Amino acid sequence: EIVLTQSPATLSLSPGERATLSCRASQSFGNYLAWYQQKPGQAPRLLIFDASNRATGIPARFSGSGSGTDFTLTISSLEPEDFAVYYCQQRSYWPPMYTFGQGTKLEIK
Amino acid sequence: EVQLVESGGGLVKPGGSLRLSCAASGFTFSSYNMNWVRQAPGKGLEWVSFISSSSNYIYYADSVQGRFTISRDNAKNSLILQMNSLRAEDTAVYYCARDPTQRFGAVYHGMDVWGQGTTVTVSS
């Protein structure tokens, strides 16, 4: 079973700053990785699929990169609505089994 | 509008059963793989179960294997999670979520549509 470790657990930044969130896998699995944003009381929202592709309607300030075991979500310039919890997720090729990271809370400094 | 709406959550005693439903609309439900994902209070996301578009392939997380059963009715655009032998640790918000990724596809499309969730509480 692949374990995803997100860092940092909490990231305190101000609007306008750049956010870099990390997701490290216990073993390599290709690019079957997604990033989600979740706000309190809401369902998760897909931001990035296949490691580096923005989902429909996601602003260009969100970008994903990485491959193998190290992946990064970057928010180039934080907007007030970006403060939330972010999860990375891996899916095995087949059979489809999914693993989520423990999340990074992005909070206003 | 593409939409998933869960229902069926509630309070149940340990050892009891509950049946969750997820109603799909706004897309061709029969063309998509579906999942259940849960989130315990104050915790992260945990994948529960997967079912392929035609129900040919079904998989479960180890934590629910043998107790939960996923199924779907494509004629009714409906996804079901039958939960038996419930435990306190099954207490969570349960989400249904769509995965458009094709079997052996070159691209992982993520879980691109989620419902709003239904709350299951297992307590005596």
What does this structure look like?
The complex is a heterodimer of chains A (109) and B (124). In chain A, a hairpin with a 2-residue loop joins β7 and β8. Helices cover 0% and strands 50% of the residues of chain A. In chain A, strands 2, 4, 5, 6, 9, 10 and 11 form a 7-stranded mixed sheet that branches. Chain A has 109 residues and is mainly beta. Chain A has strands spanning 4-7, 10-13, 19-25, 33-38, 45-49, 53-54, 62-67, 70-75, 85-91, 98-100, 104-108. The mean pLDDT of chain A is 96. The mean pLDDT of chain B is 97. Chain B has no helices and 11 strands. Chain B has strands spanning 3-7, 10-12, 18-25, 33-39, 45-51, 58-60, 68-73, 78-83, 92-99, 113-114, 118-122. In chain B, 0% of the residues lie in helices and 48% in strands. In chain B, the strands form 2 sheets. In chain B, strands 2, 4, 5, 6, 9, 10 and 11 form a 7-stranded mixed sheet that branches. Chain B is mainly beta and 124 residues long. Chain A binds chain B through residues 31-34, 36, 38, 42-46, 48-50, 53, 55-56, 87, 89, 91, 93-103, and chain B through 33, 35, 37, 44-47, 50, 57, 59, 61, 95, 97, 99, 101, 103-104, 107-112, 114-117.
User: How many strands appear in the DSSP assignment of chain A?
Assistant: 11
How many H/I helical runs of chain A? Answer: 0
- Overall body shape of chain B: globular
| Class by alpha and beta content of chain A | mainly beta
Keywords:
heterodimer; A: 109 residues; mainly beta; seven-stranded mixed sheet; four-stranded antiparallel sheet; 0% helix; globular; B: 124 residues; 11 strands
Indicate the topology.
The complex is a heterodimer of chains A (109) and B (124).
Chain A: E1 4-7, E2 10-13, E3 19-25, E4 33-38, E5 45-49, E6 53-54, E7 62-67, E8 70-75, E9 85-91, E10 98-100, E11 104-108
Parallel strand pairs in A: 2-11
Antiparallel strand pairs in A: 1-3, 3-8, 4-5, 4-9, 5-6, 7-8, 9-10, 9-11
Chain B: E1 3-7, E2 10-12, E3 18-25, E4 33-39, E5 45-51, E6 58-60, E7 68-73, E8 78-83, E9 92-99, E10 113-114, E11 118-122
Parallel strand pairs in B: 2-11
Antiparallel strand pairs in B: 1-3, 3-8, 4-5, 4-9, 5-6, 7-8, 9-10, 9-11
